[in-house]
Amino acid sequence: MKYLQNPFGYERILKKDDLGSGKKQKGARAADWKYTLKRIWQVVDEQRSLLVLVFMMVLVSSVLSLTGPFLVGRIIDHYVVPGEYDGMINLILVLIVVYCILSISLFLQNYWMIGIAQATIYRMRTGVFAKLMHLPVTYFDKRQHGELMSRATNDIETLSSTLNSAFIQVVSSVLTLTGTVLVMLYLSPLLTVLTMIIIPLMFMAMRWITRRTGRLFKEQQAAIGALNGMIEETISGQRIVKAFSQEQQVIEEFEEKSGRLRTVGFWALSYSGYIPKVMNALNNMSFAIVAGIGGLLALNGYVTIGTIVIFTEYARQFTRPLNDLANQFNTVLSAIAGAERVFAILDEPAEEDKGVRDIKLQGAVTFRQVYFKYNPEAEKDTLSDINFAIQPGQTVALVGPTGAGKTTIMQLLARFYDVRSGTVEFDGRNVQTIARETLRSQMAFVLQDPFLFEASVFDNIRYGKLDATDDEIIEAAKKANAHDFIMKLPEGYKTVLSADGGEISQGQKQLLSIARALVADPVVLLLDEATSSIDTVTEMKIQEALEVLMEGRTSFVIAHRLNTVRNADVVLVMQQGQLVESGMQEELIARGGIYASMLRAGKDIDALLDR
């Protein structure tokens, strides 16, 4: 055993070579199911002590399931056929005890296996969620959120169902098959060989079916993820759908994705549905062979009647585990497909958080020859040769049309992305040498579209500082001009808001967002113009709250209105990813450039620069 950091955030795992790096090696494509099963086993193996108990109970139940028919045969041969009933009662009592112990062992193995499965799924679900929290922003940029949700819920739940039943079935079937064959060979090698005639037929049928179902079940899980992604996206954007009267288009798109899932699911289940039918047919064939030929052997005195009874039961018992495995095969294939998608998340490289942690920012910010683009393969940079220096406590207004690069500068400041070349510095230190957690813990964000959680007002504001007291939260709300409207809510600060605060206005959500930032007491503020879509009265309240919030802090404000710019110490004018003007407002006015033209026009900045 080695003690490393594993994908689930726990320390105790198998050595790295056993766990696998998560990268497919040459030839791995044909053996993906083996690779995935190996990784599932490594997770389940954490419950080793309970697994041993389950295995013991499975062993006991397998032995007893073989003992029952054997005793029945002996009762027939020694008591029923000779007509001697003395001692038969004792053997029948032994048979009753055998089946009672068998029932207890079956109960215990299922009870313990459910505990193992739930503990394993809990670890995987927790691990996936923890991994999602530590993945870089770029990972979420490229994927539907609903599809990721499907992996963390549907795929893991499918694996849970499989672990609850399939593990015991596999172990029990292997033990039962082995024991059955040994006892059958002991009783009659000839009948044993006749019983096994079905095995080649069974493997031929299974091979034909599994070559088709494996791919189909994988596509089915992917189709479920895509459908869930669309549902989540559509529900989240319901206002836009209705605003543009796109209900019919969305319904048609849903029908298309749902239709694909129906088609893939139909063929996956159709092919896999052949398995129990084929197994039942082979089972009946085996029973007919044993009963027919066994009867002839009994008539000629080669075997006893009891042996024939034992063999017919064992013939069924021989094919029953195979039939059980075949019936479980559909679930196992679906679970493996889901597990592959889950492990794909766990194998994603987490956002590195190396760098200095014990550091207090002062608020000086410098960009030196910064170049950046979101897509490394894109021909043109999103930002090109950006240079500026900001002193602690200054307010910086970022102005420019949509797509000019204002938000990108914010993203680089928070290290949601890293520069392609050049450096971003805080207090003269390259931002890449500062741990992300340390950097972001000294920042606060007030976005144009604030996000609230389904929690109380207290908890929504406390999100900025989890150890904040109720008094600190109330004080922050007062400074943010939010206290009055909060007190008018049904339960004041204890009022539980719905997801994203649907029952309060946009302006009120913005005030709560400002209160959250105030509680955080940041050194650097990143503000996406909070008043761009607010009425005049609410704008005045928000503006007052922002002035309190920005006091003494380095603030970067994406400005859409000249009001905000007039209060700034430094103005950065962006166009097409370049910094075209920068400086104090008086300097920019004196130059008579773009910024001066904006002031003369007296219109919103976006409208002017978009010309």
Cα-based radius of gyration, to the nearest Å: 35 Å
Percent helix, as a range, is 55-70%
- Proportion of strand residues: 5-15%
Low-confidence stretches: 1-31, 606-611
Could you tell me the number of beta strands?
12
How would you explain this protein's 3D organization?
With 611 residues, this protein is an alpha/beta fold. It has 2 domains: 2-7 and 43-346, ABC transporter transmembrane region fold, CATH 1.20.1560.10; 368-442 and 556-611, 3-Layer(aba) Sandwich (Rossmann fold). Helices cover 62% and strands 10% of the residues. The chain has helices at residues 16-19, 32-44, 48-80, 88-133, 137-141, 145-187, 189-195, 198-236, 238-243, 247-299, 305-346, 406-413, 436-441, 457-462, 470-479, 483-487, 506-520, 536-550, 562-566, 585-591, 594-601, 605-609, and strands spanning 2-3, 12-13, 365-372, 383-390, 395-399, 421-426, 429-430, 443-446, 524-528, 554-558, 570-575, 578-583. Helix 3 runs antiparallel to helix 4, helix 8 packs antiparallel against helix 10 (247-299) and helix 17 packs parallel to helix 18 (536-550). The relative contact order is 0.08. Mean pLDDT is 78; it is low at 1-31 and 606-611. It is found in: Cell membrane. This is Multidrug ABC transporter ATP-binding protein. GO terms for molecular function: ABC-type oligopeptide transporter activity; ATP binding; ATP hydrolysis activity.
